[in-house]
Amino acid sequence: MHRTTLTFGSCLTLMIALLLGTVQISNAAGPRPAPAGALPTGTGHGAWNGPDPLAIDTTRIGSTYTLRDPIRANLACTRYNGGGAFTKPVDDWGNGNPTNLETACVDALWAAQKQFDMFRTWLGRNGQNGQGGAWPLRVGLNAVGLGWNPTAGAIDIGHTTSGRWVTEMDLVGREYGHAVDQTAPGWPFREPGLTEGFADIMGTLTEAYANEPLPYDEPDYVIGEKVDLTGNGPLRYMYDPSLVGDPNCYSSAIPNTEEHAAAGPLNHWFYLLAEGSNPGGGKPKSPTCDNSTVVGVGIRTAGRIVYQALLGRTSNTKYAQERRLTLNAARQLDPTCALFGATRAAWNAVRVPPTAGEPACP
């Protein structure tokens, strides 16, 4: 069980956007249709997401409403210790208190629904499970953290050290990222950092897609900053992993580095690819390991590169192979090679070197 314990203003961005247009990289259909009359929009009051109130998709059966999504197959919020999905006679959920289980379900379901839509709209994937659905959420785990439970096929949500439920959007999104990773070709990654970094990227993409304003979970490339899991602040900073003591740059020490810390180079690479080293617009600068200047391509495009690379993953994928996979993905998405060049520059900037057989473009 994976557990968390403890965009764009450049000429290159515009050119890539024009090249990519709105074409989806998927042959998947949309989510399954729901029966007529079964699509109420519930009113939710979350602890971490907003503005309040949130509009969440719920199900009505007779005079009873349920925190079960009517269009995203298998997505529901239940109690960890059993009892099925939350139900009540009114379609109004939560009270904004981060220690309240129903509020936890509001935030978790909102995050999962936003991520489902992000997968379809930005990445061309038909929901978290790729088949028009997701995995259910279970709140109330008596442990610090949250995690993807492959045995149960669910996201299990626990609490912080201060007793608040861990339902921040990027953290819920990253645990679904673990599920996507585990059900993709070539699983698992074979070097520390790639599994956790991929999950961080999926959570960050969800946060960006939702685009919530302050004081809610705004797009910021910072992991776990709202819930403060262990009382020590954010878990990771993608634009500068060293802010929490993680490595910014790849080195021979990475294979022996703790899994979450070893995500530093991948997270750093993703920020540089998406935003660049000096993005402006109030976004933080990102130091490069080779003192280069990197121009970003936008988070949506960067996300497509990461996801396309996942689909091409083979066994024994380490950082070097991930570089090669993303370069192949960039070349497939953009025949002009501008995107390829940006992807390569971002890898160079975190000192993941080229290897024999690396693709060229053109």
From TrEMBL:
Is Signal there in the keyword field?
A: yes
Bias (Low complexity) occurs at: 32-42
Under Gene3D superfamilies, the record lists: 3.10.170.10, Neutral Protease Domain 2
Q: Where is the signal peptide?
A: 1-28
> Peptidase M4 domain: from which residue to which, for each copy?
42-180
Q: Which parts of this chain are annotated as the region Disordered?
A: 32-51
Instruction: Using the record's annotation, list all stretches that form the Peptidase M4 C-terminal domain.
Output: 193-352
Q: Which GO terms describe its biological process?
A: proteolysis
Going by the UniProt record, its keywords in alphabetical order are: Hydrolase, Metal-binding, Metalloprotease, Protease, Signal, Zinc
Molecular function GO labels: metal ion binding; metalloendopeptidase activity
* Protein name per the record: Peptidase M28
**Taxonomic source organism:** Embleya hyalina
